[in-house]
Amino acid sequence: MADTSAPVVSIRHARKAFGQNQVLDDISLDVESGEVVAVIGASGGGKSTLLRCATLLERLDGADVIVHAGDLCSPLDLDALNAIAPTYAALGNNDWSYEYENHFGRLYERAVRKTVRMELFGLRWEVCHYRERLDLAWCDVGICGHTHRPHVERTQAGVLVMNPGSPCRPRTTMGPTFGRILVSGGEVVDAVIEQLPIKPQMAWYF
């Protein structure tokens, strides 16, 4: 079990520039459990950028698509991801009480289902919360979740299978993670697990 006395948010020496504009320069911050912290400053001073750097959102900038393998647990989170890039998401075991199909009176272009299939960049992709339910005979790339344990493998048939782990509730000592897949010419040229420099909200190490 994670140390509950540790900060729930810990930022160390954050730096961010947009061209020649240095928005964040060596910013460090801890937020303890139960503590309320207000970030105050002028418009353009880097408040939103700091918050984005403390989460996965900043790392998703530039993505052509986003794939989520379940447990969104909030239609607003799906909206935030879709604002960055088209998002393909599967239902997780914690999504049973959430309505993603008609949020704020509108239908999502890409439905959230138990299993999501799509053809992108010359490859067939399948997303399912549970690895054992992926149809690896159909897809070229299979994305799963549930275990919160990051993993990348190639099957004997050459199918790429990735579990990106979790950005907020990891279950390995790697801490918060996400996956990045690079495709070119209809082939996967790189598939990696990247660590996030943030403290998890909650972690189980076993």
Protein architecture, described:
The chain contains three helices and eleven strands; from the N terminus they run E-E-H-H-E-H-E-E-E-E-E-E-E-E. By secondary structure, it is mainly β. The longest helix has 10 residues, at 75-84. Residues 202-206 have low confidence and may be disordered.
Brief summary:
The protein has helices at 47-53, 57-60, 75-84; strands at residues 9-18, 21-31, 66-68, 87-89, 115-120, 123-128, 141-143, 151-154, 160-163, 177-184, 187-195.
Task: Give, in spatial order, the strands making up the sheet with the most strands.
Answer: 5-6-7-9-8
Alpha carbon gap, first and last residue: 8 Å
Briefly note the structural class of the backbone: mainly beta
Give unreliable regions as ranges: 202-206
Largest sheet: 5 strands, mixed
Percentage of residues assigned to helices: 10-25%
- Count helical runs: 3
Strands, count: 11
Q: How would the global form be characterised? A: globular
Please compute the radius of gyration using only Cα atoms.
18 Å
Topology:
Blueprint: E1 9-18, E2 21-31, H1 47-53, H2 57-60, E3 66-68, H3 75-84, E4 87-89, E5 115-120, E6 123-128, E7 141-143, E8 151-154, E9 160-163, E10 177-184, E11 187-195
Parallel strand pairs: 3-4, 6-7, 7-9
Antiparallel strand pairs: 1-2, 5-6, 8-9, 10-11
Considering the chains and any ligands shown, give keywords for the structure.
single chain; 206 residues; mainly beta; five-stranded mixed sheet; two-stranded antiparallel sheet; 11 strands; 33% strand; globular; disordered C terminus
